[in-house]
Structures are given as structure tokens and as C-alpha cells.
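ligand=pantoate
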Amino acid sequence: MITAVTTAAVASWRRKTVGKVVFVPTMGALHSGHAALIQRARRLAGKDGGVAVSIFVNPTQFGPSEDLSRYPRPIRADAALCRSEGVDLLFRPDVREMYASDVSVAVSEKSLSLRFEGAERPGHFDGVCTVVALLFQMIRPEIAVFGEKDWQQLAVIRRMVRDLKFPIRIAGHPIVREEDGLALSSRNRFLPAGARAMAPRIFQALTAAAMEAEAGTKHASLERQLRRDLGRIPGATLNYASIVEETTLEPLGRITSQTKARALVAVKLGGVRLLDNLAIPLGNSLAP
Ligand code: PAF
């Protein structure tokens, strides 16, 4: 594995890589969820291709009240995980490598970004789009792998790639969960014990909604039930819970057999914001 900190070192690795380059952008604090993304990247790259991982805690996607300095940076453990997963290039730029001191250009997605996380964290997706666009420019992958845990982020990135015509395929990878259902996240390490014990109820609420959908319940009732179940988790504050069209993230209008729905939720537990989502099968609700 090569560790690069400069754009020039990345460019030199890129020139030498013959096969497909598959890229996994991260902010570090890697866990088994990231390992699954890297394994997927390895399979997509094949034996001739190269797997590139970036670790960059991107300041522009943190709000003024969010603690950027508290974000975990276990550099050694992260590098060890990358090495053991067969990563070819680990790119660890510092802020000066990524942003000129008088940087004045940003990428802004103006539709999908406005709701949910975007409403809770104004400017967050501008930071995400800008840094991902920069990383795409530097690494020039054929494919980039993103986790489905941040479903809205995945949808926003797909839109950016479509609208800016990046010649890159975006592969979404399913959420990796603890045995009790909690979606893996770098933030889980901050959960106090009591909140950790309650956290699996988020996935239980989502699963209950999906099962009700299978049974033919209409989406408006599903959404009410989901909010009620999440609101009943002791100590939890519900940020949002909505069932939306999975690509546009718009509220569901008329349901057809083509409609693909996703429940998106964010809950604050023990001072930690936990995001989760699940596909909601609405086919059976079409019956009159
Ligand atoms: O999902 C993340 O870890 C970050 O938002 C990303 C995509 C690496 C951009 O900083």
C-alpha cells in the first residue's frame, strides 16, 4: 500500500495503475462498515485494478456548532485496516492540500440537499459535494463506492455526478449492522451505555414499518406509526422520519408499481445523532 499526502503523489500512482480505479472516500475512524465498502471496491477493481481510499476530515462539511476537533482520528488503526483489506493507495491530504487559503469556488446541489440532513445542518452538503468533486478530480476513479447508511448523501452525490457529467459510476453499498440491528457508524463510539441499549429500537421501528407496508398499510399511516415508535424510545429526540421517493427524496405522491420508497430517519440519543434508513415495499398498498 502506498500512502500519499500530495496531489502529485496521487497523480503518479494513477498514471501507473493499468486497470480500473475504484475509490472509497472516507473521513477515517474506519470500522467494519468501511471494510465492507473497501472489499466491494476490491471486487469491482479486479486483480489488475487499483483501490484508492481517502481519509480526510473535511472542515467545510461541519457547521460552526459541530465539533470538528472532536472527530476521531485513529490514524494508525485506520492505516492498518486499509493495509489488511488490500488497499493500494491511501490518500491522506491535509487541509492546505485540499483548499487554497483564498478558495472561492464550491459545488452546491440545490434540491435534494435542502431537506433532512441539509435542513438540520445548513451548508453540510455544499461541503460534501465540494470535497467529493475535488477528490474525484484528484483520483479520477472509474467507480466510487459510497455507503447507503448516508442515503441522502448518496442521492446528492449521484445527482452531482449526473449534472456535472463526471465519468464515474457510483456504487451504493448496503448498510452494515451490528447483530442487534444498529447501523454501523463512526459516531456509535460516543453513545453512552444507556443510549446504546436503546439504539437498536431505531432499526426495529424501521423494520416494523417495512412489515406493515408488506401487509398493505398505506404510506401516510406507516409514517405516523414510524414517528410514534421512534418517539417512544426512552431518551430519544426525533429529528425527522419520512417515507420518500428513493432517488428524488420527494414526498410520495401517487403510488404506482414503479414507486421505490425509502424511510429516512434521524434520532438524537445520548447526545449522538443516529441516521438510518430502509427500503419500504409499497406494492401491496396499491390494492383498493
Ligand atoms: O461520508 C463521509 O464520510 C463523508 O461525507 C465523505 C463522503 C468522505 C466526504 O467528506
